[in-house]
Amino acid sequence: MYPALPADRRDPSAGSIGNFPAVFGFILDAGSATFTPALKRGRKNRLGGTVPQTLQYRDSVAWLTEHVYPKIRDSVPRFEWELHAPLIAEINHLKRERNAVILGHNYMLPEIFHGIADFTGDSLALSERARETDAEIIVFCGVHFMAETAKILNPSRTVLIPDLDAGCSLSESISPEDVRLLKQRYPGIPVVTYMNTPAAIKAESDVCCTSANARSVVESLGTDTVIFLPDEYLARNVAAETDVKVIAWSGRCIVHERFTVDEIHAYREQYPGIEVIAHPECSPEVCEEADFVGSTSGMIGHLDHARSNQVIMVTECSMSDNVQEAHPELQFVKPCSLCPHMKKISLEKTLDSLRELRYEIEVAPEIRQRALRALERMLEVGRDRVAA
Predict the structure, then answer these.
(1) Domains of the chain, earliest start first
(2) Where are any strands of DSSP class E within 38-146?
(3) pLDDT grade, residue 52 (50/70/90)?
């Protein structure tokens, strides 16, 4: 139940029903007790979502969203926030109405990460968290392979992604036929597949892994050689930590491959004493220059033990924005390397997805069963290693 909105902060034009401010797409008709839909089709915004013309920044919207803005004020200017807030209020109402849960990856924009996501984190952790809810609908604010993983682990739920074109350079770097040809070339060699792959690739694999547990999964197989797909840099970083021979593919993340050793040296020169925290999708040379290397969850956990009050997270830029609120004591130097695929997900598109139940993710049953086996084998290695 919502608390009563203070009388001096109510927007008379919005109306109210008891203590419930009418800002969620319904307005109270004068002199009646009927509801009138307030969401009308508006113009397309620059990101491709539809902005309802009647969604405005009113006192009632401010009241419902005022707890969010302090978390993102360092990243989102006030004028922009007043465009986001009505969408956040509408989305949060609609997800309750539809019994939906929103999963927000660490690389999402701050207004999504802090404003509408029920759970935040990396893709596997989010898909598992969705299992723990009674939500009928899962909206994955991330990229396509993540939504597929959510569907694999939650086959009875409706899984939506706000933009079908939100892909991944790693995911698109290899095909099922490529995997089958590798298995023919290296018969009997187990295939370890990184989470950043579509369901059809996972289905061709023996076991999946995350960036956090890649070494543990490789060594758990008890073989002297593995095929590791599709991230070349992650494969090389794992190979440097184990005696197992790693046969790598040539896929790379378009965000992490941009970082160079010269760039790290330049940051250290400009910010003496800065702590460099890198993701293992970066090149081995960059990881060698870093003070700490870890998965997105590992990087976030490391911030609690940062040795400097200045930190650079060598990964997608929005992650620094999203953890800033939890670490006001740290100054984040932000190398602005944005993922163009992640940035296809917006508040407007998420609202459209919830309102129109689009775009639904489907995984063929035979693909899902084989991909699920690869995921379950990974989880058998140890859940503590998965989330590290």
Answers:
(1) 7-166+344-356 (3.40.50.10800), 171-253+364-386 (3.40.50.10800), 256-338 (3.40.50.10800)
(2) 100-105, 119-121, 137-141
(3) low
